[in-house]
Amino acid sequence: MGSTEKRCSVCILPGAFPNISFDEQGRCNHCRNTADKKADVAKEKAVYRGKFTGLLETVLNHPGRGDRPYDILMAYSGGKDSTYTLSLLKREFGLRVLALSFDNGFVSQAAMGNIRRVTGSLGVDHILFSPRWDLLKKIFSASARREFYPRKAIERASNICTSCMGIVKAVCLKTAIEMDIPMIGFGWSPGQAPLQSSIMKNNPALVKAAQRAFLGPFTEIAGGDVKAWFLSERHYDEPERFPYNIHPMAWEYYNEETIFREIANLGWTFPADTDSNSTNCLLNALGNHVHVKKYGFNPYAWEIANMVRDGVMTREEGLRKFSEPENREQVETAKRRLGLEEES
Ligand SMILES: [Zn+2]
Description:
The chain is built from 13 helices and six strands. By secondary structure, it is an alpha/beta fold. It has a single domain (44-297, 322-337), classed as Rossmann fold (3-Layer(aba) Sandwich). Strands 3-2-1-4-6-5 form a six-stranded mixed β-sheet, with helices on both faces. The longest helix has 21 residues, at 159-179. The model has no long low-confidence stretch (mean pLDDT 91). Bound molecules: zinc ion. Zinc ion (ZN) binds at residues 8, 10-11, 13, 27-28, 30-31, 305.
């Protein structure tokens, strides 16, 4: 990750990124494609805010609302973005929230403390879902060693993150369907998911295809017990129970300073035990390490580039995120726990 590496003159996406091309001004193809649309971002955000207001009206006035335990299930990692989102849902929108945290075996102590303090001070019910470690270990170590996702997936995240997110999404969706919760909240950073996907009803056919992409390799790697985390046939028989996925950060004002100030009031403290791109997961450093070694670029490149391009992060901040040294100790600890010591 030397400073001599070629990068887009606008969004700093690196030259090693798959299928990237630069024009004579040094702009990448992704920046060229979005240049014309840029002026409409504010307008588009307003459209999605309006859509969400409409969805809220439907949910809050639903004749069966009284029988539903919650309005929204929040996928709550304890990181800064999902903490801020959780606070918005409860305080700003006045929703009845159930928070669900996923324990992948690498949640830092600091993050666990944040999760407890924040859910406590906001007054929301909370579920901690901890899958069997023997199964997770097999899946994560295979995710570090092998490639079993479509090529496109490596542009967005490390294989380890993709595996973890696949389980998180499945567990959240299954829980929401079974408890009849009409929305699932996610706290993606503004660079992780496009505005166009910030309010979307889960489509049973697409969900089925997506789950197969995980269940196939996971079953082969760890056996049939992994099916417990995913939807089964009977869930697809009631498509009307499929919830909306929403991520309010896509259209709500985003500024890291504001977020840190807001969530500090809820008892959230900056975890000193994780790397800068993830404020909650001690497996992240290994995921990054493997990705950079295999593909030659940081798995957060896409996310960081999107934020720089959209002006929510300066070029300097973006470059700083790229140049931070990896946490060697965390990489080694994660390798040891996953039985990957022999790998460089
Ligand atoms: Zn670019």
